[in-house]
TrEMBL record:
The chain crosses the membrane at residues 102-120, 132-159, 171-187, 225-251, 271-290. Keywords: Cell membrane, Membrane, Transmembrane, Transmembrane helix, Transport. This is Oligopeptide ABC transporter permease OppB. The gene is oppB. It comes from Lysobacter hankyongensis. It comes from the Bacteria. It holds the Pfam family BPD_transp_1.
């Protein structure tokens, strides 16, 4: 119980520091949310600033916003006046979770078997070919991969739509664009970990006693060999979250990444802060789940 309370306090402190830093940086950036309203009469400008508390001192704005967040209210959106940030997040979060979850699942379902296969064929042409493609997958950034996928599968072959949302075929290209770098890293990480595990002394002794390679792999090597992959899930999630901003913009997907980019460009303070808080809370929760999964797979970590 004490450990859980400590983790919860640490998570809340992390989210508070993240929100405070984002609040300060947004206010320090040049420009404001209503710079395009300069032609409006002064009384209209004053009314807008009063409505969104921009006429108050910065400390008062911060205190009022923090109080609203404590009550679960992320505030009104500056650029979407008909919606609150809670409503925008409620619309965008399931979209991003679907894309990100499928991308991570695809990376694991393909990356782990390919990495194990490469480790079992270490030094062979299959191993070299797989690692070559994995290196290319890591080298090409998402803002290059996404347009290339559109050019190939949407424009040239016309197999899939170039963007939009609402049908199953709208999901395919964004998921592939998000998954490719993580798939490549997962394959390389699995290969390296499995090579180290397969060379362990206890497996060499078990092999000498006549155990089959299949039993060695599935009963003794796979679980410890996948521990680094489990630990990698947290940075993989962060990589998907950061990559979604690019992918959602390219494919016109109404997700969290797109709202974050649009909010930052339009100085929509409450929208950016709301997205940062929700994504930060999601990452903290995923980190806790990954730690629990690692402790279940490796008993040595339970008392750490």
């Amino acid at each position: 119980m004490k450990r859980f309370a400590g983790r919860l306090l640490e998570a809340l402190l992390t989210l508070w520091l993240l929100a405070t830093l984002c609040f300060v940086l947004l206010r320090a950036a040049p420009g404001g949310p209503f710079d395009t309203e300069k032609a409006a009469p002064p009384e209209v400008q004053a009314a807008l600033e009063a409505r969104y508390r921009l006429d108050r001192p910065l400390v008062a704005q911060y205190g009022a916003w923090l109080g609203d967040v404590a009550r679960g209210d992320l505030g009104p959106s500056f650029q979407y006046p008909d919606y609150t940030v809670n409503q925008l997040v409620a619309q965008a979060l399931p979209v991003s979770l679907l894309n990100g979850g499928l991308a991570l699942l695809l990376a694991l379902l393909l990356g782990v078997p390919l990495g194990v296969w490469a480790a079992l064929r270490a030094g062979a042409w299959v191993d070299r070919a797989l690692m070559l493609f994995a290196g290319l997958g890591l080298a090409v950034p998402k803002f290059v991969v996404a347009p290339l996928l559109v050019l190939l599968f949407a424009v040239t072959l016309q197999w899939l739509p170039a963007g939009g949302w609402g049908e199953w075929d709208n999901i395919v290209l964004p998921v592939i664009a998000l998954a490719l770098p993580n798939l490549a890293y997962c394959a390389r990480l699995t290969r390296a970990s499995m090579l180290e595990t397969l060379g362990a002394e206890y497996l060499v002794a078990a092999r000498a006693r006549g155990l089959s390679e299949a039993r060695l792999l599935f009963a003794h090597a796979l679980r410890p060999g996948l521990l680094p992959v489990i630990a990698w899930l947290s940075p993989a999630l962060i990589n998907i979250v950061t990559g979604s901003a690019v992918v959602e913009q390219v494919f016109g997907i109404p997700g969290m990444g797109r709202y974050f980019v649009q909010g930052a460009l339009n100085r929509d303070y409450t929208l950016v802060l709301g997205v940062v808080l929700v994504v930060g809370a999601l990452i903290v929760a995923i980190n806790a789940l990954v730690d629990a999964l690692r402790a279940w797979m490796d008993p040595r970590l339970r008392d750490a």
